[in-house]
Design goal:
The chain is mainly α. The chain has 8 helices and no strands. The protein has helices at residues 3-22, 26-36, 49-53, 56-72, 78-101, 107-140, 145-165, 167-202.
Length: 203
């Protein structure tokens, strides 16, 4: 794997990892289809996770899980329960996405980037979406949650398609999504700390 191929493979993996922060099962399902029909921006080493994702069983299981996950986020209160399950799953999916695209890279580098960058990106974006949904639930009683779910699903689809068709552009999208998530999480923490200070002082 030369330098440019490595950049493209990493961009592909990070784009899919970011998409996994919005929805866990859609990115690996679409990626599995892309591998199956040889529609990837670079030659992917089809082994391990990549081989399973593009197999008949893998596509059936991922496709079924994808539909159930998307529908579950439109069920009141079940969406918040899904967040508690999806958060660790998103980090695992982010790891798998980067690991599968860097199959020809140095194993040490492959593992390091998959764990630190892949899992970190998907986990951070997932935390951001959980915070947005929690705020929506608290301020609207969950009425606005379907809008949040639709926006998340749309962002996941866009990021997944960009990652497969235009991985370098997906890298830009991933960076923006990551920065926005970090900024939102930080602002929420600061606001919660500010709101908690008066009550603490009065007690």
């Amino acid at each position: 794997m030369n330098g440019m191929e490595f950049v493209l493979a990493l961009s592909l993996g990070l784009g899919l990892a970011a998409a996994s922060g919005f929805r866990v099962f859609l990115p690996p399902f679409v990626y599995g289809l892309a591998i199956r029909f040889e529609f990837t921006p670079i030659d992917i080493s089809v082994q391990g996770a990549s081989e399973w994702m593009s197999s008949d069983l893998g596509l059936i299981l991922l496709g079924s899980a994808m539909v159930l996950e998307i529908l579950a986020y439109y069920v009141p209160w079940l969406d918040n329960l899904m967040d508690s399950i999806a958060s660790p799953a998103a980090m695992l999916a982010g790891f798998a996405m980067v690991y599968s695209t860097l199959g020809d890279a140095n194993p040490v580098l492959q593992w390091a980037l998959s764990i630190i960058v892949g899992g970190g990106v998907s986990g951070t974006i997932q935390i951001g979406t959980v915070s947005v949904r929690a705020l929506s639930t608290m301020t609207t009683g969950g009425i606005a949650n379907p809008l949040v779910s639709t926006a998340e699903a749309g962002a996941c689809i866009i990021c997944t398609i960009l990652a497969i068709l235009l991985p370098l552009l997906a890298l830009i999208f991933t960076t923006l999504a990551l920065l926005l998530s970090v900024k939102y999480i930080r602002n929420r923490k600061e606001k919660m700390a500010t709101e908690a200070t008066p009550s603490h002082a009065s007690s």
